[in-house]
Amino acid sequence: MSLHLRKSSLDPVQIPGWRWQPFLDHAVAALEPFQVIPYPVADAFLQKEGSTGSKAKPVPVTTATWACTTDKLRQVRCACVEAGAAASVLNFVINPSCRFDLPFFGADLVTLPNGHLLALDLQPVDKADADHTLPVWERLMPIFERWRAELPDGGPIPEEAKPYFSPAFLWTRIPLGEEGDDLIERVIRPAFADYLQLYLRLVEEAQPVDDDRAALLLSGQKRYTAYRAEKDPARGMLTRFYGSEWTESYIHGVLFDLEKTTATPLS
Ligand code: DBV
Fold first, then answer.
1. Count of other CB atoms within 10 angstroms of residue 221
2. % the chain with pLDDT above 70
3. 23 and 189 Cβ atoms separated by less than 8 Å
4. How much distance in Å is there from the Cα of 233 to the middle of ligand 1?
5. Are 82 and 190 in contact (CB under 8 A)?
6. What's the pLDDT score for residue 257?
7. How far apart (Å, rounded) are the C-alpha atoms in residues 75 and 107?
8. How far does the centroid of ligand 1 lie from the alpha carbon of residue 116, in Å?
9. For residue 228, how far is its CA from the centre of ligand 1 (angstroms)?
10. 207: CA distance to ligand 1 center in Å?
11. What tens digit of pLDDT does each residue of 76-97 get?
12. What does the mean pLDDT of the chain come to?
């Protein structure tokens, strides 16, 4: 366990057998030119060991959080979960500063015993605001079209979630085994890289907005974050692994922390 002791949110995450390791490694490298600094994450959430499965056949569980901040990105964080055959997850969210007219980057790559569940999107702060969405969607749609053609549709998503997705929400469920492994290598990996590359290009290009616009963006960001925290589909899994006290602090204090953050996003 001490082998993987992490002291800072920027220390490398290396979890033996973690399926999504190359995705995080790619994202960390892509962020490097942005002068990242560590994002404060309490020790209890930097890396947490646990156990699932039966008494007779316990399965070790590791959850690690990689995180950083930059001048334009309030919080970039990756939740990394490895629980052997029970689960393997990369949940990656980039929360921009409300000083910039930027969407969220969201990736949810989830392997469960019954298959993979994969979601990628650049999610708008306010879907009704064409100034906010059109410049992004125009550029994202061709990328979406290209990769969607290679994947089965993931099926319906909850009605209440729809305001938070872009029309380029890449969402699929695929089987475990060779077929799934092949799609992950051939489609999900380049799609993840393409979505992230476009996002980081938008970050480079972004210019600061005025105070009124920043206040509007902040309230939209809070709506999104509150929704994600309230509906976090990982709540059940994390509660089984670590109990509800740790899980609620993790969800509200780390994963979706905009409401709780002590930094003042508008200053
Ligand atoms: N999802 C999270 C975080 C996770 C996580 C922080 C730390 O937001 C994992 C881990 N997602 C996770 C798990 C499941 C899902 C499901 C473990 C499976 C839940 C289960 O079946 O027990 C995309 N993720 C889902 C579902 C959707 C998404 C639509 C299935 C529906 C559901 O069970 O509610 N998550 C959703 C989404 C983004 C995202 C669109 C952004 C791109 O991160």
1. 22
2. 97
3. yes
4. 5
5. no
6. 97
7. 15
8. 11
9. 9
10. 31
11. 999 999 999 999 999 999 999 9
12. 95
pLDDT of res. 121: 98
**Beta strand 170-174 pairing with 73-82:** unpaired
Q: Is the shortest distance between the CB of 229 and ligand 1 below 6 Å? A: no
Mutation test residue for ligand 1: of 90, 91, 196, the one with most atoms within 8 Å of CB: 91
What value does the mean pLDDT take over residues 229-241? Answer: 97
Name the 3-class secondary structure at 97: coil
> What is the reported pTM?
0.96
Q: State whether residue 58 is helix, strand or coil.
A: strand
Ligand 1 site, residue 162, Cβ cutoff 6 A: no
pLDDT at residue 261 in the model: 78
Choose among 101, 41, 112, 113: nearest CA to 72: 101
**CA pair distance 188, 23, nearest whole angstrom:** 10
Question: Is the distance from CB of 135 to CB of 105 less than 8 angstroms?
Answer: no
User: Going by CA atoms, what residue is nearest to atom 10 of ligand 1?
Assistant: 234
Give all domains of the chain, ordered by start, each with its CATH number.
Answer: 3-261 (3.40.1500.20)
Q: Is the CB of 218 under 6 A from ligand 1?
A: no
Helix (H) or strand (E) holding 196: helix 189-205
